[in-house]
Amino acid sequence: MLRLTSDHFPVFVPFGVIGFYRYLWYIIRLLAAWTYRSIPLPEIPTYIASEDVTIVVPTIDAGEEFKEAAHSWLVGKPKEILIITEEKMLGPLQDLANAVDPERIRVLTVPYANKRLQMSHGIKNTTTDIIVFADDDAIWPPTLLPYVLACFEDQKVGGVGTSQRVQPCGDRFTVWEVLAAFRLSIRNIEIASSTHIDGGIPCLSGRTAAYRTVILKDPEFLHGFTHDYWLGKYQLNSGDDKFLTRWMVSHGWNTYVQCCKEAELLSTMKPNWRFLKQVLRWTRNTWRSDLRSLFMERYIWTSHPYVAYTMVDKLFNPFTLLSGPCLVAWLIAKSTRPVADGGYHLPWWNIVISYVVWLTATRTAKLLPHLWYRPQDVIYVPAFIAFGYYFAIMKVYALLTLHETGWGTRAGIGDPTAATAAADANKVAAEEKQMPESPMPRYPEQQQQYYAQPPVEMQTGYTPPPGELQAGYAQ
């Protein structure tokens, strides 16, 4: 591919340079992912799910798939499951909860559908040491909770994520679901490699992630989480998992991802063209969060330099990818001109065939970890190639429309500014009736006494850094 013509100018060198760079780093990621090891279960665990875990599920339109997901969560024996929804959905969701386990599932409401407000309401009503956020369609293996809790044996770990696979909505995978499965397979390699190389991760996926409650109970976090603005004027509702991950980094907490079968969840994706709307929302969230991490907060450079590199690489990725078709078009134009006028001997069809063969071979190689388990998906490689170029154009479009903060795939999600204003008004009214509150406890003995009290919203608080919390646990 470096030189396929009889001309003196090596026309394929640009392809070779870009390809060498891209696939060198992909090989590095593969090697790091293969040498990654998940954290094993401790002989005597510090945290027990039945005593220390509350699962918080923000939702507005959970259906029958919720029952399968909830049953999978209950196998791990959490202390409680909190379903947070808007007021008009209380009846249907209460019926779903009663059909699964009315004793361990509570349904709480907020006035408006707003994911971050729903999550913060769940945080305030949590009485355990660990909070696990889960999507209403996330199906867990029976061993997920013990393996997630194993990571918290390290008192410096504040957040834990898991690997994921796609669960088809119907009997068979649609092309959209296969594309999503390809993306998740690549993502599983990326998060395992970054965790192994420098302990960081670009995002603890909101499909399922666990956090120390003491971190999220901090009033500073709760306010920042529900009053998050892009450029100071566009309030954000989605991107909650990105915010949580950045908060861990900026406040000195470590994260870990359990990439193993014992902690690998199943999640559904949109089985039709609406998947593209999901991807657009995720892409905008990634642009906003990565730009903040790299250039505004900048903690990522010293905490997780490899993750910082991957973020920078993703900034340029759509442009390097789109350079390929541009170079091919230029070569085709040159090949149609006479050699005497500066054209190439290589005919245009030879260039096209070479490019298609190169794309097919390299993209198939990149998907080999996925095709090892689902070889029948090899027929979708051309669709994955086409989607890659569409995604590159989408990333450029997303960059130019970061002010668009709508959810995109759920009509019930309203204006986040109005929802937050209503929540703040309710908060003020509640404060006028509340008794004085004690500050956030710093050590486990104090936390047990604190969590035994009815949950109330705190006015003052303190979240210790990991080192200080570790010292407290040592006492």
Automatic annotation (TrEMBL):
Chief location: membrane
Cellular compartments annotated: Membrane
Region of interest (Disordered), ranges: 424-475
Single GO molecular function: glycosyltransferase activity
Gene Ontology annotations for the cellular component aspect, listed alphabetically: membrane
Superkingdom to which the source organism belongs: Eukaryota
Gene3D superfamilies reported for this sequence: Spore Coat Polysaccharide Biosynthesis Protein SpsA, Chain A (3.90.550.10)
Keywords: Glycoprotein, Glycosyltransferase, Membrane, Transferase, Transmembrane, Transmembrane helix
Membrane-spanning segments: 12-32, 315-333, 378-400
Statement: the UniProt record of this protein carries the keyword ATP-binding: no
Low complexity: bias regions: 443-455
Cross-referenced PANTHER family: EXOSTOSIN-LIKE 2, SYNTHASE CPS1, PUTATIVE (AFU_ORTHOLOGUE AFUA_7G02500)-RELATED
Name this protein carries in UniProt: Glycosyltransferase family 2 protein
Biological source species: Obba rivulosa
